[in-house]
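Anyone have tokens for Cytochrome c biogenesis protein CcdA? Sequence:
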Amino acid sequence: MFGVDIIDGSLLMAMGIALFAGVLSFLSPCVLPIVPPYLAYMAGTNMNAVQSGGRDWKVLQAAGFFVLGLSTVFLFLGFAASAFGQVFLAYQREMAIVAGIVIMIFGLHFLGIFRIPLLYREMRLDAGDRGGSAFGAYVLGLAFAFGWTPCIGPVLGAVLSMAAQEGSIARGTVLMAVYALGLGVPFLLAALFMRRSVSAMARLRPHMERIERIMGVLLYTVGLMMISGTFSDLSYWLLETFPALGRIG
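Reply: yep, here.
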């Protein structure tokens, strides 16, 4: 469907990491707690109405346009990162090393080895008073993707770095689409099962520090793999272990 040489073992492995990174971004300490009130606001209702079971379809519609907004930004960023990588294709190895070092530093931040004050600053764009409309939810999705930097920024940067290392713009864009899927689908599920998700999220809050450390391990590992070139080794292993992957594309 994507054409010859678009999807291979290396990209499939990167897609798996991007998907997991998207889910972890949703579970991050600065995203998960605001999901229910965000969804209620976008649907033009309040938390009391949501918890009593009112206007579920409106919440789901708002979530859909919100996810569409953030996906628009992520796809654009994936396209731009891949295009940047194409321009500096001759220095791809050097770029991988630099990006790997930066990503490992982000990982150490989330592991608590040291803290980077800049990552605690947020650049939230004001979308205005547009709750209750599909367009407003879409604009909020755009603002969310651009401005929620403290938690999703480092993870997003890691996925963008992987996108920049891909051999084509199409591959990098696919990678960011998978990241958007990992972040967006939980939003849709939270909207679909709003009453249940509110209580589920409340139970997850005491585990925010553990989730943050998982993000740190993921980032550090991805950075190390980029520096060492392990991605290529693992892609060859995947193709040897699962020959059917070589026929995908």
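Residues 123-127 have pLDDT under 50 and may be disordered.
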